[in-house]
Specification:
Helix content: 25-40%
Number of helices: 5
Order of helices and strands: EHHHEEEHEHEEE
Distance between the termini: 29 Å
Structural class: alpha+beta
Radius of gyration: 15 Å
Number of strands: 8
Largest sheet: 8 strands, mixed
Shape: globular
Oligomer: single chain
């Protein structure tokens, strides 16, 4: 098993769209008619306004995430000095095989290479317990005072941070 992490190209967009949509829907985190599905599927806009990375498993796209910084269009919570990653998604058929861990590890290493970045932050839906376990095992800590609600919905998002 060989995992490679790299910046996404346009050729990856359909795979990213499918993987992200399927990861959220198959786990029951959101329903197909939720407006957030359109945002998850809009890889073109994400790539234009954030860094989009993929993890390949044996040469095939298996996961993706978006990386953003304070003040950028895709940023939900990052403040100065933080790198935020969002929309981490692993192909449902490949979950729990190390692909997500490899992608998060690469994001952390990237953050460490950047001047002025001292924290990696993210938000996660409360039922995403497998993701929470991954983040905690990699040193992320819950920051409940930064939790927030999705506007106009009764969905709370938990904040996790890793001090570098």
């Amino acid at each position: 098993m060989s995992i490679t992490v790299r910046q996404a190209t346009e050729a990856d967009f359909d795979d990213i769209r499918r993987i992200t949509r399927d990861a959220y829907l198959s786990a029951g985190f959101i329903e197909a008619d939720n407006p957030y599905v359109k945002e998850l599927e809009n890889v073109e806009d994400r790539a234009a306004n954030a860094l989009v990375w993929v993890a390949e498993l044996d040469g095939k796209v298996a996961a993706s995430t978006a990386i953003t910084f304070a003040g950028q269009p895709y940023t939900d919570i990052a403040i100065e000095g933080e790198l935020e990653f969002r929309m981490l998604a692993v192909d449902p058929q490949l979950q729990r095989g190390g692909v997500g861990r490899a992608l998060v590890a690469a994001v952390i290493e990237y953050a460490r290479s950047l001047d002025g970045i001292h924290t990696v932050s993210l938000t996660s839906m409360t039922p995403m317990t497998n993701a929470h376990a991954l983040y905690k095992s990699m040193g992320f800590k819950r920051v409940p005072e930064r939790d927030w609600y999705v506007p106009n919905e009764d969905i709370i998002l938990w904040v996790f941070c890793l001090e570098l």
